[in-house]
Amino acid sequence: MEILGEKKFRSRQIYEWLHVKLADSFEEMTNLSKPLREKLEEHYLIWPLEMLERQESKLDGTNKFLFRLQDDNVVESVLMKYKHGNSVCISSQVGCRMGCKFCASTIGGLERNLSPSEMVGQIYQIQKISGERVSNVVVMGTGEPMDNYDNFLTFIRILTDEHGLHISQRNVTVSTCGIVPKIKELAKENLQITLALSLHGATQSKRQSLMPVANKYDLSEVLEACDIYFRETGRRITFEYSLVAGVNDTDEDAKELTAVCKSRNCHLNLIPVNPIKERDFVQPSRQSAEKFKNKLEKSGINVTIRREMGSDIDGACGQLRRKHAEKAEG
Ligand code: SAH
User: Where does the pLDDT of residue 278 fall: very low under 50, low under 70, confident under 90, or very high at 90 and above?
Assistant: First the structure.
């Protein structure tokens, strides 16, 4: 504001318009004078995300959104309604280069990183469109947040800023496939967000067969980084484990997974794999998933099976965006 020859306090007003009142244009900022709004228009850009598609689950009220970015790339985000509040799952990149075998988001590779504003923008637009207050955010959509670290951090600071939406850090979860140096860096940022590690295999070789990133970082290093995160932040780690029938859901797997979880203060989230049409991974039956869970529970592990949300819409990671891409390719 000082550069524009304006009073300093105007910046606070603009910040509030952008991050609390969620304005999409300078025109809306009615407590600024018309000449100032015109000046802002001339020097700065606001690029709101544009909603292309919205799917609403009839089963549980889950909403899936497809947004268009300024350069015509598209990203998807999900709004999930729980008793304890509304949770939004956002994307952190356009596409992904991690190559996990069962994931639809990575099939076309990485297009580009999302900017901090494109990350908060997903939440802002969902809050505006749905009229629902968002209380929880999970960075579990398309992309690997630790592969877009600096933008991710800026995003967290804006999202949890007391002058913005002020979402509690404890209500934010970031999920990573296990980029060791970045987990260690995040541990030192003095944040209270929850770290979720995509484990998916409880041994190095099993992990390698599902996740190429395991070729770079050994399971022991990944677990050590998680231990450091817990030590530095006091936040309990969540392990995510996508259950794939016949691949990682045997008795042997349960035993190995118990060994990993037993010695740690952690929560284990079992996700029956969402089959995607490009791959032939099979979801275990409800019964067999329960059996797997009970085995771990008996050993005193804190374990849940993730409730499937919005199974009547393109709910699984990256499926809506892929469908859109295929339509565009004709
Ligand atoms: N790149 C990050 C966050 C995005 S994916 C990560 O790897 O953690 C969020 C979670 O969904 C990850 O645990 C991922 O492995 C899992 N996931 C991806 N595709 C899936 C599928 N088809 N079925 C079940 N879980 C899946």
Answer: confident
153 touches 161 (CB < 8 A):
no
Q: Residue 274 CA: which ligand 1 atom is closest?
A: 23
What is the dotted CATH code of the domain comprising 1-46? Answer: 1.10.150.530
CATH code for residues 49-329: 3.20.20.70
Could you read off the pLDDT of 58-88 as tens digits, one per residue? Answer: 988 899 999 999 999 999 999 999 988 999 9
Residue whose token pair is 């499926």: 319
Convert the pLDDT of each residue in 143-155 to its tens digit.
999 999 999 999 9
Ligand 1 centre from 318 Cα, in Å? Answer: 10
Q: Is 292 in the pocket of ligand 1 (CB under 6 A)?
A: no
Does the CB atom of residue 242 touch ligand 1 within 6 A?
yes
Q: Which residue stretches of the chain are H helix?
A: 9-19, 34-43, 116-130, 149-160, 180-187, 204-210, 219-233, 251-262, 286-298, 319-329
Average pLDDT, the chain: 95
Q: Which atom of ligand 1 is nearest to the CA of 174?
A: 3
